[in-house]
Write a structure and sequence with these properties.
Helix content: 40-55%
Strand order of the largest sheet: 3-4-5
Radius of gyration: 25 Å
Strand content: 5-15%
Number of helices: 11
Largest sheet: 3 strands, antiparallel
Length: about 250
């Protein structure tokens, strides 16, 4: 969506128009309504005629906002979630859009090992969150294993993530992780396989800084070694800043 601020700007804009609409609309409204930027989902007990009237009113409220919609009595997709009604209970499962190519990071790419090894686990954990039924969750990993195998991930790495995710119950998986306050001083290196030796040398000899009376007061905790991405071919071939003629 362009620059980093565009999603926030779009979200604020749609929220403003949305608030105006609900304050002015006098017809039957959905009992449940949720929105993520420009994707909406809801449920209603109204008759189909009232629902069609609501949709028509939404689409004619502002000339810059036009919506497509899908109506179902049993299930529908919202982002990457399939929401179904079973009796009086909502069930969720994973949904793959037709345009989803599952282009996960190739295992052969030059990236830190912990980054590549965390991708299978994160994808299986995502299934743990989206699948509300354990029986449904037990069926989905096989498909994910095939996606990862096509991207070159070793079977041992895939299986490690596969076995780790089911050990976490769904309620715990749905909780937002809390970041701990970290006062360690970071050192950022350009990632390269040879820089692992640099990291090892720094951490191994860090006690020299701690034992020094001057640096020991500053470096009371081990340094936080992090990596940044080096320039790739795209940085040299694609111009990100338009130059204007003077």
């Amino acid at each position: 969506m362009g620059t980093k601020m565009v999603p926030s700007y779009a979200n604020l804009y749609v929220s403003y128009i949305e608030t105006q609409f609900f304050n002015q609309y006098n017809g039957p409204k959905p009992e449940l309504y949720r929105r993520h930027i420009d994707n909406c989902v809801g449920s209603t007990s109204s008759i189909r005629e009232d629902l069609n009237q609501f949709i028509t009113a939404v689409n004619s409220f502002h000339p810059a906002l036009k919506y497509t919609w899908e109506i179902s009595d049993t299930s529908l997709a919202f982002l990457n979630i399939k929401v179904s009604i079973e009796g009086h209970v909502l069930r969720t499962s994973v949904h793959h859009k037709p345009t989803d190519s599952h282009s996960y990071l190739l295992y052969s790419f030059l990236h830190p090992s912990h980054v590549k090894h965390s991708i299978p686990y994160s994808q299986f954990l995502r299934l743990r969150r989206l699948c509300s039924d354990d029986s449904d969750f037990s069926l989905k990993p096989e498909e994910m294993c095939n996606f990862l195998n096509k991207r070159g991930y070793p079977a041992s790495v895939v299986q490690a993530g596969h076995h780790r995710a089911p050990q976490i119950d769904r309620q715990s998986a749905l909780q937002t992780s809390q970041r701990e306050n970290n006062e360690r001083i970071p050192i950022t290196l350009t990632f390269h396989t040879h820089n692992h030796a640099v990291k090892s040398i720094i951490l191994t000899n860090f006690r020299l800084f701690q034992n020094d009376p001057d640096t020991g007061r500053i470096l009371s905790q081990p340094l936080l070694i992090s990596f940044k991405c080096d320039k790739n071919m795209g940085n040299f071939l694609v111009r990100r800043v338009f130059q204007t003629s003077k």
